Amino acid sequence: MATRKKSTARPSSIAASNGNLRGARAAIDRPIGVFDSGIGGLTVLKALTAALPGEDFIYLGDTARLPYGTKSNEVIVRYSKENTGFLLAKGIKMLVVACNTSSAVALDAIASDTMVPVIGVIEPGARAAAKASRIGKIGVIGTEATIASGAYTRAIQRLSPRAEIYTRACPLLVPLAEEGWTNNAVAELTVAHYLESLKQSGIDTLLLGCTHYPLLREMFVRILGPRVKIVDSATATATDVRGRLRTLKLARRGGAGSQSFFVTETPDRFVRVGRRFLGPQVESAVRIER
Ligand code: DGL
Question: Which CATH architecture has domain 123-233?
Fold first, then answer.
């Protein structure tokens, strides 16, 4: 089982790895469900585990059907609902939609028929960008579907109605990050090409609206210079999740949490690449049928 347990010193001795948790555990002791189209959501899980070390997480990467960023809204909604159904069956206490594309396109559809609280990455990311920008010129980058949805633009404008928002889809950055090409000439050329128009617009803040982009942070700084603030929605989402758990009195105290990984393709690549995204705790993953 793909579970890392740092400690067993828990009030509840029920195994956190998977299956039949519903009813067997108090709400507070249930895991948090996280899904993404594949590997990238591990950057969100990384931020979540740093903010909430005592929680158990169940991560689902829909590796058989990625990327979501080039798909139609109808398909993204369908896949996102299926991912949600899988995690709900695990008895989760909260759902985090780590995938920016799913959050941008499918969050309302997911939340409307889900009994547990659902948190996406768009609102927290937008809030962090609006807060970071001094002059109100904000760049947003993401997948084609995320940018086409206009979700980040709407969310930022609700918070800062006068903000000027410049967006750019950067699809090639996903395979570059997965290949580990984050600091070479190819990455530099590609990032420079994508960011050219945003740079010309004089943005003072760049919002990384895709799970993979935090891995290219250094390259963004190199291309845009140190004066442009780089904000990623993963960290902002983790802060939100912590706040929501506390408000709902669902936050666990102390202890060391676990992480279980599920994928829809053979796990080998997920484990290999996932280690770069999250760390050595990605030891194995369980393949589920789709
Ligand atoms: N996880 C996706 C996102 O954050 C990027 C990869 C994909 O297109 O599926 O939008």
Answer: 3-Layer(aba) Sandwich (3.40)
